[in-house]
Amino acid sequence: MSVHIAFELPEDVFSTFRQTPDEFVREMRLTSAVKWYELGLVSQSKAAVVADVSRQEFLAALDRFGVSPFQETVEEVGEALDHG
User: How many domains are contained in the chain?
Assistant: First the structure.
């Protein structure tokens, strides 16, 4: 099941980003998913669903936005290994 969400934006938003409304919505979904992943709110697979892309495409988007595909820091991984 899916839910349709609609909201209004000024027309000049699309020209600012040089995108059609459809392109803008795709980019907005992807950007949101990347940020939510970066904040640790969603997994990679859930973020890919939110963005409506494959997991591989989502990983490429993480690279494009400069976001690590790993949610754990080096310190957290080290701690887990020390206590594992």
Answer: 1
SS in 3 state form for the chain?
CCCCCCCCCCCHHHHHCCCCHHHHHHHHHHHHHHHHHHCCCCCHHHHHHHHCCCHHHHHHHHHHHCCCCCCCCHHHHHHHHHHC
Does 25 reside within a domain?
yes
Distance between CA atoms of residues 38 and 35, nearest Å: 5
Distance CA 14, CA 56 (A): 27
**pLDDT for 8-56, tens place per residue?**
989 888 888 899 999 999 999 999 999 999 999 999 999 999 999 999 9
The domain of 44 spans: 16-83
Is 5 part of any domain? no
